[in-house]
From TrEMBL, chains A, B:
InterPro entries: ADH-like_C, ADH_N_2, ER, GroES-like_sf, MDR_fam, NAD(P)-bd_dom_sf. GO terms for molecular function: oxidoreductase activity, acting on the CH-CH group of donors, NAD or NADP as acceptor. The keyword Nucleotide-binding does not apply. Residues 17-329 form the Enoyl reductase (ER) domain. The keyword Oxidoreductase applies. This is Enoyl reductase (ER) domain-containing protein. Keywords: Oxidoreductase. It comes from Mesonia phycicola. Pfam families: ADH_N_2 (PF16884), ADH_zinc_N (PF00107).
Amino acid sequence: MKNTILLNSRPEGKPQESDFKFVNQEVGTPSNNEILIESKYVSVDPYLRGRMSDAKSYVPPFKLNEPITSGIVAEVLQSENSYFKKGDFVTGNLPWKKQQVVNPENLQKVDPEKAPLSTYLGILGLTGLTAYLGLTEIGKPKKGETLVVSGAAGAVGSVVGQIGKILGLHVVGVAGSDEKVEMLTSKFGFDKGINYKTTDNMAKAIADACPNGVDVYFDNVGGEISDGVLVNINKFARIAICGAIAVYNKTSIPKALAVQPFLVKNSALMQGFIVSNYQDKFGEASKQLAQWLQEDKLVYEETMVKGFENIPQAFLDLFEGKNKGKMVVQV
Amino acid sequence: MKNTILLNSRPEGKPQESDFKFVNQEVGTPSNNEILIESKYVSVDPYLRGRMSDAKSYVPPFKLNEPITSGIVAEVLQSENSYFKKGDFVTGNLPWKKQQVVNPENLQKVDPEKAPLSTYLGILGLTGLTAYLGLTEIGKPKKGETLVVSGAAGAVGSVVGQIGKILGLHVVGVAGSDEKVEMLTSKFGFDKGINYKTTDNMAKAIADACPNGVDVYFDNVGGEISDGVLVNINKFARIAICGAIAVYNKTSIPKALAVQPFLVKNSALMQGFIVSNYQDKFGEASKQLAQWLQEDKLVYEETMVKGFENIPQAFLDLFEGKNKGKMVVQV
């Protein structure tokens, strides 16, 4: 039984199934505060692509022939730790293994009574925190302003747009299918959606959807969508760069519209981030997200794939835009 | 006698002499708190190029057939104002006229005993404030970090680098001739200079000059120089965009390296600004600059052109890099 997924090779361009390798590794038994856990839900996220390369980045690259890691919700099967009990559920950044013995010091308990377990990988996990903290700390949205979100139907983007609406902004989302665009307005309450795949002229589409210009741009994708937003920014605009999925799989960084003239003429700000930059605000942010969820002010979408063996494919599907909302694998 | 310079046409690409028109306009006599002044020194600056176009920008465009305005130091010839006396010198943003009657409410008195009059257009004027406030407010330099400055031999860049040295940074400047590069180290105290015109590979040149990577980039030019810096930025780098002279004269915004992947993987910030964003800090900044100048910690370079009739040509020469330090016309 193959119970572990290793990085088999570093992708050139688009990752492939062959970049992953399934192996069987001994699980062992817990001792000295350790616990034995079984993975229930595994998060697959675009940012993992970066860690598969060995380029300098904000987190060290995955090592070849070692397991990939990502956010996982697991059940405690056996415990030598007084805090964690058999039957508890925990979450943290963990290797892609069916079962494993771990020192739980970086794991948090999660409560299946309060919210479905998978949401701790999504709206109540790093996904929600990324949306909330990127938007509030960099975007600094003010009531009445206009917010544009790219990758708007994705896990982070759909939460960003909803928070924008809660805070009283005009919210426009960009996504890659008519079905997703429809969901932006009908399910997530965005004011407008734009299907970039059927739009010839992004700059004009953004201008039409944002009659007062763009004050805040939450960017998950980069590329031509961002070029189209850039020409529509207002004075003192803030652009939070959360990801650049449009270029993750390129073998060289592509050319894009030079941003400097737009930033200087508008005194605008563009800032990249990862959620861990704001670790000191996780408590406050989690509380706010949980409250909005409870008040039904936030809804979420999940694309749930079943089976440990389908984790690599679920990850690859992210780059085809096959997910709506958070992509999660139920083991 | 032609005493006034008007905007004759909006330049397409590079401005030309024919975009300016010399005319004679009546001067009049002062009344009701007005003063009659005579221009002594006129500042020509790259940012004026932006105002010659009618594109949306941070300041309204110049109007056709009306005078260009810029920083001017003038002498009071006649006064109907109790605060300003004949023989006083004043500075402010003023039309390109030899003599004019103005309401002086936006003018400041300057003291020729404390510093040469032209410095009030340069290191003790908006140029110095731009350098100081862009570097400190956006760049947030910390002792021991590495600062790169583009347009380093220019009016703003040469001051930025010197402030970097005062604050204890490793400072690298990029300029466009061997003579300028020599001046960076010998006159302004930069640690290293790079001549971009004789450098094949900017990214490598920056890497060689910045063994610890780039923490702060003060960008006056944009274009390929900035692309070369971008690939060398460190985590949490700060990029202050002061200008984009490399693209001001292009008829369409050129393509450049996509910045988003670099910003996101380094959690880096890029922010455009104009000095007036920090008007509330002018007092404090001016005091600091004057003190450093007095202590001989700051030196400055001026390129002085003589004659009112040469103002347009002095402006055009900026785009050929013919100035070292601040370009000023002595009327």
